[in-house]
Amino acid sequence: VDSVKAASDVYAPASGTVTEANAALGDEPELVNTDPENGGWLFRLTLSDAGELAGLMDRAAYDAFIASL
C-alpha cells in the first residue's frame, strides 16, 4: 500500500494466491476507511489451506477484543 508519506506491506491472515486487486481503490483510496467491508476491499485471495481460517476471530470475538482495549 502506497500513500503520500509511506509505503507499507499488507499481510493476509491466511496463505493463498491473490486473484484480483480492487481497481476502484486507484480512484477512491478512501474506500479502505469509509467502506472496508464492501467497496474498500484490497484483494481477493484463493486460499491454499482453508483450515488456516479456524485460528481467526469471528466478528463477535473481534468486536469483544476491540471493546476490551
Q: Helical residue percent?
A: 10-25%
* Class from helix and strand fractions: alpha+beta
- Mean pLDDT over the full residue set: 94
Q: What letter string, H or E per element, gives the SSE order?
A: EHHEH
Shape field: globular
List segments where confidence is low: pLDDT < 50 over at least 5 consecutive residues: none
* Number of discrete helical segments: 3
**Arrangement of strands in the largest sheet:** 1-2
Portion of residues in beta strands equals 15-25%
Rg over CA atoms: 14 Å
N-to-C span: 26 Å
Q: How many strands?
A: 2
Largest sheet: 2 strands, antiparallel
Give a quick summary of the entry.
The chain has 69 residues and is of the alpha+beta class. The chain is built from 3 helices and 2 strands, in the order βααβα.
Features:
69 residues; alpha+beta; two-stranded antiparallel sheet; 3 helices; 25% helix; 16% strand; globular
Characterization of this structure:
It is a single chain. The protein is of the alpha+beta class and 69 residues long. 25% of the residues lie in helices and 16% in strands. The protein has three helices and two strands; from the N terminus they run βααβα. The protein has helices at 24-27, 31-34, 59-67; strands spanning 16-21, 43-47. A two-stranded antiparallel ribbon has the order 1-2. The longest helix is centred in the last third of the chain and has 9 residues, at 59-67. The model has no long low-confidence stretch (mean pLDDT 94).
List the topology elements.
Blueprint: E1 16-21, H1 24-27, H2 31-34, E2 43-47, H3 59-67
Antiparallel strand pairs: 1-2
